[in-house]
Structure formats: structure tokens, C-alpha cells
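Example record for the data management plan.
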Amino acid sequence: MTRGVWLLTALVAAALFAFLPSAAFGVGNPSADLDQCANGNPLSATACDASHDADWINGNVGQSKATYFEGDSLPYRMKFDNLLPGSSHTVTIKWDTTKGGTHALDFLTTYNRTVTSADPCAGVTGCSGPTSTAPIPKDPQVDNGSQSPIKQGAGVFTFFGADITNVGSYSYPDGTGFSGDKSAQITLTFTAGTANPVLAWAGHIARRRADGFSGGWGDGNAAVNIPGSPYHTALVNRQDRSLSADAVIFPGSITIIKDAVPNNAQDFSYTTTGGLSPATFSLDDDSDPTLSNTQAYNGIIAFGTYTFTEGAVSGWTLSFGTPVCTVTSPG
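Corresponding structural encoding:
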């Protein structure tokens, strides 16, 4: 049985990919090609599916090509070629977990967690359904088993055309902890079932605040706070993949709360500009359930200027002197 060894460094700055050739592979030189999924801007419901293999790209994933939120998972695929069926190989995935002490891609997870349409077999001859999966273990620096310092969401490595035989432990080539620029790595061993198997996984984009899938690192400590293109993947001296920070969004929110003095059943009407829905609404400030005293707009990703105008009501005056409130996003 022939054994090949690959080093794959993925996600965020100084990424590497190299292999040590062995004596016997399939016809031609062994090769590997790394792609990442550009999910569209605006978001595409068919991104990276079987009919849109061009969405799996080698170049930079920037704002013009992709829309990822903090807490999303960016799909990657590694296409191998000219491997000898039955041969054993080792792949080490390495990712830089922090840049200047700020969290970027904090852990690995399943390739289609966010982009559910993603098909790693798209455009790959002979590739069909997955042949092997393996659970991604918790990184003890991210989740020690008690969700400390944060909760790490579950996920799997997926191979198409190969069988995963072992997933190793994490190691930290730049030292433990998250200060400065740090990285983590993990090694997979697999047996090729075809000459051109595909490995798929995703990198989780670190978020500020916890959701149901993962914990948050706190305001100012997550991926959206890193400028430039910090998410790099490369083949040594040959290929580089990057995700621009401008493609990573932390959604905004606006909440209007009506506080009437005294509390009263009077209804107060509002109109908005800027494209929010609903464009008009009414609030009151009493205890009955007919109307709320609060209108919230969540998940805002079209950053700009929004205005809210309260309609005049006889017998009532505004404490702040003007019926118009203007909110402008910083970016």
C-alpha cells in the first residue's frame, strides 16, 4: 500500500499546501486543487450546487461575489487527482485562529452548514455521493467539553471517493492561546477509493455574540473586526485563496420604543424611509395586547440611512422636539 502525505493549511493568512510524493500514484503526477464557495451577492439559493460549479472559485471571495455573516461557515473543497485507488494518504488542515488577537475562523465544521446548496462534486467527473464522514472533534482551546471559552458547534469532515480512517488530535504550531497571530491544525488519514477524491469541510466565521450553534467572543473580538482579506488558503508557491473582510457582515438592528406619559391607549403612527419592512406601523403604550409599544427591525444588511417619522396627535407633544429620527449606518 502506497502512503502519501499532504500538508493543507487553510483559512486565514500564511496558509500552506504541500505534499511529499511517494513512489506509486495513479497515471500522471498527483495533484490537489483548493476551492472555496462564493455564495453570491445578493445571496444565491443555488450557490455551488451541481449546476453552478463555477461558484467554486480559486480567487478572492470578496463583497462582489459573496455574502457571509458572522457565525456562518465558509465551504471549502480539496480536489485530489492521480491518486492510486487503495493507497493511504495523510492530510493536515491548518488554520490561523486569530490575527492580532482577534478571532477569525475559530473552528471547522460541516461543508454545507450555511450554504445548503453546496455540492463538492460539482464539475468533478465521476464524483457522486459522499463515501465517508468523520466527526470533527472539539478543539480544547475553543470548547473544553463544557462550552468554555465558547461552545463549538458540531460538524463532520466529508470525503467523496475516499474513506477516512483516522482523525488526529489538535496541535498549535504557533503556541497555545489566542494572543497575537495563532493557528491550529488537525490531521486526517484516508484511503483513496478513486483517483480523484474530494474532501469537503467549512471554516466557521467567529462571531461576537452566541447563537444556538456556537458561542461568541465578545464585541470587538470577532471576524468582522479584522480588516483586509484575512482568510487565506494557499498551495505553497502556487495557489492562494482568500475571503475579504468586506464579505463578512454583522447584521444591524433598529428598535423603536414608544413611551407615552401617562400610559394611554392612544395609537401613534409612524412612517419610515430606507426600504425597511413594514414601511409604516403603529404603537401605543398601554397594557392591552392589541398594539405593542415596540417595533424592531432585525437582520439589516443594507447599510445606509433610515428615517422614522411619528405622526402628529392632537393633545400630545414630543419630548425630543422633532417627529423625525434619522439613523445612519457607519458602513
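Summary line stored alongside the record: The CA atoms of residues 26 and 84 lie 4 Å apart.
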